[in-house]
Structure prediction request, 341 residues.
Amino acid sequence: MAEPRPGLALRFQRRFLAARPLRSLPWPELEQSLRTAPDSALLADILHKTILHPLCVKYPPSAKYRRCFLTELIKKLESTAAEPLDELYEALAGVLKEEEESTHCYKNYLLPSGECVSLCESTALISGGTTGLLTWEAALHLAQWALQNPGLFRDRTILELGSGIGFTGIAICKTCQPRTFIFSDCHPRVLRQLRENIQLNGFVPEPDVTWSTQTESQGQEVEGQNCQNPKVIVAELDWGSVTEKQLLGLRADVVIAADVVYDPEIILALIGMLQKLSTSRADRKAPEVFIASTIRNPDTYQLFQAELDKAGIRWQVIPAHSSCNFLYDVQPDVTILQLFI
Prediction:
């Protein structure tokens, strides 16, 4: 079986570089060759003439194709007595890492001030079991409205519910000069990406702290703090389990949220969170609350308004521009509500 090896490897090379379907590759011949010659020489020859070939490195097929190719090759190896080939597993690890990284991209959003918000975002609507790894339309509209009303945020403490990967909050921090901005979410992967995006834009979040020490430090804000460089906090905040005492410690002057009204099942938790905010103000003035929503399902949005009425939370629609400078395709139906809690 020594003679056919070069020819078999060359056939693999031609077919692989031509990116033909995996089923067209001569797997039976390969498996038979490996069974009759159980050593790694043939496998190494195939590997170097396909996945590691200079042409393949320069003009690589898709990561998915290479992953399938290498996985099949490993299966053939494991079905024989051939000894493992480290290069094969290293190549597969590299492709898997490339596939994982390819699900994300970097986007730059130019603000009217000339500054830029840079974000690492998911390329998929749902990634890691959450929709929070990309920027949604209501976040863009809310940011544009905030930049047109900077006085509402200047020298104040802002709490954002469901911050996602951070576009709205970062835009406000860069242009509206808040004293403190508290980003919050509950999904671990979203929080990790949120923190990375905040750092990517030049802000340094406060070190991870418990709720008790976090709220205590919030109560010790220094008067006249330089709002050109706001204090930034990333908080894990579960609407269902957060307490009124914890919310009181945040001392929020303004509460904002974007695209948090999309599922009937979470509306009651959101309403409960707003009620906690209304009863946790002690002798402080109640925070001003603004929620931007993309109207995808009118029934869901009407349910949210009905639950607000049932809870005794008054609301009014805030006039907003029908178009958004951050969107270049179809403009969605986005509404911003001011809530009186």
In short: The beta strands are 104-110, 116-122, 157-161, 180-185, 231-236, 254-258, 288-294, 314-318, 334-340.
